[in-house]
Amino acid sequence: MISRCRDDVVSPYLVHRKPDRLKQKQAQTKDHWTKVEERYLTRAFKKAREAANCYAGWKEEEMPGFHEARALSLHLYKKAGKDGQKIAGHASEGMTKNYQRDHKEIIWSEAIPDLNISEITG
């Protein structure tokens, strides 16, 4: 709901944040001081994922990140016949397709392991 995004901070972004400290360098590189930086979002997602303890025992590189979860959601929107571009907030269809690119349907095939390795090795 859009109303849940409203607060006392005037921002051109629905999802935004008031930084703890406004660094001059950051202010110069962003188009608006309330824009959520990708690094911040990635770290916050990781912190929330760890607090939820959903992946206990998984290696760090096996755990899903923010962008994997977002890409999966866009894939599921497409699979359901819906336009994920609007929900993702992408300005171009190409960016949405970029997220969906790595989520092709897996087609499984049966394989029968019929090789006797001793026939080759002697």
Structure overview:
By secondary structure, the protein is an all-alpha fold. It has helices spanning 24-29, 38-52, 66-79, 84-88, 93-100, 118-121. It is 43% helix and 0% strand. The chain is elongated and about 75 Å long. 6% of the residues are buried.
Count of alpha and pi helical runs = 6
The N- to C-terminal Cα distance equals 68 Å
Q: What is the gyration radius calculated from CA atoms?
A: 22 Å
Sum up the overall morphology in one term.
Answer: elongated
Q: Quick one: biggest sheet?
A: none
Task: List the secondary-structure elements in sequence, H or E.
Answer: HHHHHH
Quaternary state of the chains: single chain
Question: What number is the mean pLDDT?
Answer: 81
Low-confidence stretches: none
Structural class: mainly alpha
**Content of β-strand:** under 5%
How many DSSP-defined strands?
0
Instruction: Tell me roughly what share of residues is in helical segments.
Output: 40-55%
Characterize this entry briefly:
The protein has six helices and no strands. The protein has helices at residues 24-29, 38-52, 66-79, 84-88, 93-100, 118-121.
Record keyword descriptors for this entry.
mainly alpha, single chain
